[in-house]
Amino acid sequence: MTQALPLPSDLATRTIQTRREFHQFPELGLTEFRTAGTIATRLEALGLEVRAGRDVMDPRSLLGVPSKEVMDAAFARALDEGAPANWLEKFKGGLTGVVGTLRGKGDGPVIALRCDTDALPIVESDEQVHAPAREGFVSKHRGVMHACGHDAHAAIGLGVAELLASRRSDLRGTVKFLFQPAEEGGRGAVPMRDAGVVDDVDYFIAIHTGMESESGVLYPITVGWLASAKLDVVYRGIAAHAGGRPNEGRNALLAAAQAVVGLYGIAPHHAGRSRVNVGVLQAGSGRNVIADHAFFMMEVRGDTEEICDYMLARAEAVIRGAAHAQEVGVEIIPAGRTATAESSRPLAETVARATSQIPNLRSTLEPKEAGGSEDATFFMRRVQERGGQAIYACVGSHTPSGHHTPRFDIAESDLGPAVQALATAIVEISHNPPKKG
Fold it and tell me: How many CB atoms lie within 10 A of CB 107?
């Protein structure tokens, strides 16, 4: 069995610094221009082969692309904040994926490590109890923050790349580092999958920090991912004076409100968990005007894709029914999707065994309950369908506040052991590939 790779103290420190840099400059899905440029530059400096943009994302598979105005503003801000200009052109149009490839010194399998990079539209807390505010690395982008740990994931991925690049002679085969945009909303994995980035992968590892777990524990198996579908809904009515001629109007706001209430009334599915949520609702233009437009963002989820499809079909029926009742037009726009997937036991066992000697870390094959949704499942399924193995691993870390909250944070002391563990596991897989099914 591979001995634990030594973790240089400066690399552990640098990983924390990298996480803090990403935390200060968060970017929403498909606008991760500065983040992706920084990653590509760092990987290139390590001697990896780097591909980005259209080379690793199929633009035909993009969903939920921000408006041109939003894209242009994010692009200009990234330039102002020091993003490497030589990479930025590749990322235009929301193609902010990056893949770095490290080739070992001997023949062996192709191993992939996937890390996501996007942030969330949340105003970060400036309270001193919140470590990023107290330590001076709180978000510089008001209304956007890393509230799910993707800053840590990207930093861990770069740390693993650096450690393995320095020990290339220990590695057999090939390691691909996938830095995926737009995990939030389930928009980034499918374009990368459709570009073929995992078609040659034998062993695939995705990671996530936190997930309501204790620090110092690595869970190579997560379970309970929900399939999900995301929709944007637009109603278009007719404006009219609310007091003088209300009968001449067609109320888009009322249609949206009727739809939202109806969505929460969808009957749960008997075969497993089902969920619905409307997260954004906007409508109207004035107090005394019949609203001629309304917009909301929603999602449905299910324990299985069949349950998710049931929820989606019922949701669309409710949305169209509300439009018919109010005699308004409606447009339903797909905005993202996630699937379900199961971790491959042999790969999980190899990772747990290889990381059993990492200081300040305990590996367990006890499954970690996920509870949410993840588009890394599309990568996992593609690899498994082609005869490979895939796992989704939880890097345990204490989170003083839950995910997707203004005070979300992680224990930074967990980053170094995570880098050491994942690098050691990858070397072990390269020398002793888990047997395939």
Answer: 9
